Amino acid sequence: MFELALRVLCSLTVVFVLLWALARLARRGVGGGHGAGLVTVLARQQLSRGSSVAVVKVADRALVLGVSDAGVSLLADADAAVFSAGAPEDPRPSPLAGSLLSAEAWRFLRGKR
Which residues does 46 contact at the CB level (< 8 Å), separation at least 6? Predict the structure, then answer.
């Protein structure tokens, strides 16, 4: 009986370690670490239920894209420096500010102060 319980415990440990490793691999992505990509979404604004406008940085260019259920269309093309010049922050605090559910609290808990 003890041998069976030990065998089951070892099998479950192997399964959980494999699941943990696969989850870490999936989070990291196939292309390596974060920040290595050439494409970054700088801003996105929802216009209606099925449409939005996104500013996407590709290498040294910024593309303003119209995104809808029908597809994606290029609205404008500009130098990325135009959009990276310090945009003003939203003066309204988050409704979760100061609570354990706020983004700042989670960054602090994860060690990314």
Answer: 52
